[in-house]
Each structure stands twice: as structure tokens, then as C-alpha cells.
Write a sequence for this structure.
């Protein structure tokens, strides 16, 4: 099976703009989670989607949002970008009933 | 919420030696503990995981131990090789309303020949 894929891989935005990142899970996986990775804070959980419903949410401001489509692909959106949003955004998928998460390669976002 | 602490933050060992990384967690409901290896510029890769009904698990040169009473778990790598050099992350999950992973801050392991 193909692994988790994310697009785009790199992105440069300026403060105040918004951005949408995409994640395609492993075929058959219905759970998609998103994480933010920064040198200072490490890996932090953003949210998890299962069957198009947000199942869990981390401690991030409302500027961070996401959704999941009927084919399990997921998008996350960050509005009104701040310099501190510069990070590697990783998504991970897992199969139903399994906690094991498989990560995608990430989208590296730079906010100028 | 869950808090996972990981030590040490950096670890340097000679090839062939053993490496041990330790993590503690705060949520007694946590029941799933994976370890990920992340090489520079790459995605985190699951290397081993353990569930709370098991005290120890081994896969070739890698082992993980779990002490539920003390709320800590450890990664042991034996006969280290230069290709083991990477950042290692521990994580914990309670499985409450989903599979959110709470990660430790990572350990940068350097194996010198």
C-alpha cells in the first residue's frame, strides 16, 4: 500500500495570509491526525478526524481548523498566519480500531 | 491533559554500546506507548510500541519496558550502529475519544564509530 502523502511539501506565506494543507491517508485508513512540529515545542497534537467528524482537538487557537472528506482525505487550514506558525505540519493515519499511527512526510510552512 | 517527559535530550554512545531513553507520563489512563525514530528531514517512523497490559516487548536490538505503577517507560537499543543516529520520540495515548498522541520532546542520539 502507498504510504501517507501530504501536499504541498513546502510552502512560503506572509503574515496575515491563510493556508490549506492536504493529507491523503493510507488506503483503508479512516482516522487522520494532524501534528505541528517545531524545534521549541516538539510534536504537538492539533486534531484528529474519523469518518468526517472531528474526534479530538489539541490546545491550539481557533485559527487552526480542519476537515475530512468522505474518501478520508483531510485538509487543515490556518487563517491569519503568524510568524510562530512556521513549522513542519505532519499528518498521520491509522486503521479503524488501531492506535498505530503512520506519518506522512510533512508540509514545511515558512511564514515571513 | 497528558504530560510526557523524556530524558536525556541528547545522548552520545560508541558503536556497539547500549542506549537507554526514559519517559514518564502523567495520565494514569494512558494505555498505548509508541516510540518513533526521526532522521533528519524525514518523517517519524514507528520503531516499537507497547500497550499497558504488557510489561516488556522486544524486537531484535530494540526493547521497550513499561512500569505502570511508576508511570514510566523506556527504550533500550543494544549493539548500537551509526545508522541508529536520529531523534527518538516517546509518546503516550489514553484512547479516550480518539488516538491523540502526546509526545516527549525527543532525544537526539549520536552513535560514533
Amino acid at each position: 500500500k502507498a504510504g501517507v502523502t501530504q501536499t504541498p511539501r513546502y510552502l512560503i506565506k506572509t503574515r496575515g495570509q491563510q493556508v490549506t494543507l492536504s493529507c491523503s491517508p493510507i488506503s483503508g485508513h479512516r482516522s487522520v491526525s494532524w501534528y505541528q512540529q517545531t524545534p521549541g515545542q516538539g510534536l504537538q497534537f492539533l486534531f484528529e478526524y474519523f469518518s468526517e467528524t472531528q474526534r479530538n482537538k489539541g490546545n491550539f487557537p481557533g485559527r487552526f481548523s480542519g476537515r475530512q472528506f468522505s474518501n478520508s482525505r483531510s485538509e487543515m487550514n490556518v487563517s491569519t498566519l503568524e510568524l510562530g506558525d512556521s513549522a513542519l505540519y505532519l499528518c498521520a493515519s491509522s486503521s479503524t480500531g488501531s492506535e498505530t499511527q503512520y506519518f506522512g512526510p510533512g508540509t514545511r510552512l515558512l511564514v515571513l | 491533559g497528558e504530560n510526557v517527559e523524556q530524558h536525556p535530550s541528547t545522548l552520545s554512545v560508541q558503536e556497539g554500546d547500549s542506549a537507554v531513553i526514559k519517559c514518564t507520563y502523567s495520565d494514569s489512563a494512558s494505555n498505548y506507548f509508541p516510540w518513533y525514530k526521526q532522521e533528519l528531514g524525514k518523517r517519524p517512523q514507528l520503531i516499537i510500541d507497547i500497550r499497558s497490559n504488557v510489561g516488556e516487548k522486544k524486537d531484535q536490538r530494540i526493547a521497550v519496558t513499561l512500569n505502570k505503577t511508576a508511570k514510566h517507560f523506556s527504550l533500550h537499543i543494544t549493539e548500537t550502529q551509526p545508522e541508529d543516529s536520529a531523534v527518538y520520540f516517546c509518546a503516550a495515548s489514553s484512547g479516550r475519544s480518539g488516538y491523540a498522541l502526546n509526545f516527549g520532546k525527543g532525544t537526539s542520539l549520536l552513535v560514533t564509530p
User: Anything to note?
Assistant: Chain A touches chain B through 24 residues (CB under 8 Å). The two ends of chain A are 37 Å apart (CA to CA).
